[in-house]
């Protein structure tokens, strides 16, 4: 089962692309290390306070895939410098 979560986020404290990328690099690295997911920035690469992050999980059962994505999204919400605004979840 393959589940994709696309999350639009705002990084309020970022005042430049360099600051945004520092926050994103830390968030993406920690998500990959902690959970069995793939993570990438999908959109808004040239906008310094906005981003869209894609999180994908592939497992053998629907329940474990949903659990893995939900845990990753909960962890994403734990970062104080990042605010998740819109999330679209899609089975592939």
UniProtKB/TrEMBL annotation:
<protein>
    <submittedName>
        <fullName>DUF503 family protein</fullName>
    </submittedName>
</protein>
<dbReference type="InterPro" id="IPR036746">
    <property type="entry name" value="TT1725-like_sf"/>
</dbReference>
<dbReference type="InterPro" id="IPR007546">
    <property type="entry name" value="DUF503"/>
</dbReference>
<dbReference type="Pfam" id="PF04456">
    <property type="entry name" value="DUF503"/>
</dbReference>
């Amino acid at each position: 089962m393959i589940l994709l979560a696309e999350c639009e986020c705002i990084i309020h404290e970022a005042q430049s692309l360099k600051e945004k990328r520092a926050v994103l690099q830390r968030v993406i690295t920690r998500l990959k290390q902690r959970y069995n997911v793939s993570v990438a920035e999908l959109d808004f690469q040239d906008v310094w306070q906005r981003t869209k992050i894609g999180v994908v999980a592939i497992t053998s059962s629907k329940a474990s895939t949903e659990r893995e994505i939900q845990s990753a999204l909960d962890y994403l919400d734990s970062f104080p410098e990042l605010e998740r605004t819109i999330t679209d979840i899609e089975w592939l």
